[in-house]
Write a structure and sequence with these properties.
By secondary structure, the chain is α+β, with helices and mostly antiparallel strands. It has four helices and four strands. It has a two-stranded antiparallel ribbon with strand order 1-2. A two-stranded antiparallel sheet has the order 3-4.
Length: 102
C-alpha cells in the first residue's frame, strides 16, 4: 500500500461545511473525479517534493512544510494522516516561497 497525496482547491463555503460536519470530509476527499481542475494529484511524488522543499528537515517551518504539516487538521478520515486545510494567507505564502526558487 502506498501513501498518496492530493491537493484540492476549495471555497470558504466548502470549508465551513466541512468544519460543521466532519462526516463529510471523507466524501469530500474521495468524491472528486480525476479530471476535476480543482484537484492536483501528487501521487507518490509528495515525498521527494517534501524532501526538496524542507532540505530533509522534519522540523522545517512554514511555508516549506505545507505538504505534510501545514494548515489546520479537519475532520476524521481513515487515512495515514488527517485532511488539512490551508487558509488563503498560507496558500499565498506557499506560492511566494515556491516562486522564489530558481
Amino acid at each position: 500500500m502506498s501513501m498518496l497525496l492530493s491537493l484540492r482547491i476549495t471555497t470558504p463555503s466548502e470549508i465551513a461545511t466541512l468544519r460543521a460536519s466532519s462526516e463529510m470530509v471523507a466524501e469530500w476527499v474521495t468524491g472528486t473525479d480525476a479530471g476535476d481542475p480543482s484537484l492536483i494529484e501528487l501521487d507518490k511524488t509528495w515525498d521527494g517534493l517534501n524532501y526538496l522543499l524542507t532540505d530533509g528537515n522534519e522540523r522545517a517551518g512554514e511555508p516549506w512544510c505545507f505538504l505534510l504539516r501545514g494548515g489546520e487538521e479537519i475532520g476524521e478520515y481513515a487515512s495515514y494522516d488527517p485532511v488539512r486545510i490551508l487558509q488563503p494567507a498560507q496558500v499565498k505564502a506557499c506560492s511566494e516561497a515556491l516562486a522564489s526558487l530558481s
